[in-house]
Amino acid sequence: MKRWLGRYWRLLTRPSVHFSLGFLTLGGFIAGIIFWGGFNTAMEATNTQQFCVACHEMERNPLREMQDTIHYTNRSGVRAQCADCHVPHGWTHKIARKMEASKEVWGWVFGSIRTEEQFEEKRLELAQREWARLEANDSLECRNCHEFEHMDFTAQSSRAARAHSTSLASGEATCIDCHKGIAHDLPAGHHGGYEAAALEAGIPDVISWVTHLGRAEAAKPSQLTAP
């Protein structure tokens, strides 16, 4: 053991052209820490709301829509940022998503979605691509905050509890199947509605949360009575 340690110590202290191998190893280790810290800091900076709004011109489009939803203002004061719904938290999935999102930066740089009109023209395409991505990864971003294991079905409406405890629990459906449009306006040309999505997902007796709210809001004037 002593001989083995001595041999490797001599290897580490043996001089290179200008520096010892030990110095180069330690220097490389320190440089790696600095690089990793800088890389991770830059990665987190791209997850901030300020970065997303600046790069994607979202202040005039999706951000305004989100400000009217429960993900932005709610009784608990917990606010979702862009990255919470569009970037997974896990390192491997996060890197893959960042690489995929580079196409969005390309689109902004070359002016394909800079203006409000351009965004509206592409809204359906962008929405369908995002819905397909969430369906493929089992709504991984939704699960950044919403954990099925911690759901209290007794605190949910009967409709939501029925959907979550059956179709979601069995894997027949995923979050996005019933929650399209929960944070942003639905695009023009979106056909089928939420009832159709529920049927496709195998939950015909479930009306989407957004559709339910829309119907409740539309019904309010008719429910008012004169004093």
UniProtKB/TrEMBL annotation:
Binding site for heme 1: C52, C55, M58, E104
Keywords assigned by UniProt, alphabetized: Cell membrane, Electron transport, Heme, Iron, Membrane, Metal-binding, Transmembrane, Transmembrane helix, Transport
Protein name: Cytochrome c-type protein
Organism of origin: Halomonas salipaludis
Listed Pfam families: Cytochrom_NNT
Principal localisation: membrane
Residues the record lists as binding a menaquinol: C82
GO cellular component terms attached to this protein's record: plasma membrane
Similarity remark: Belongs to the NapC/NirT/NrfH family.
Binding site for heme 2: C85, H86, H184
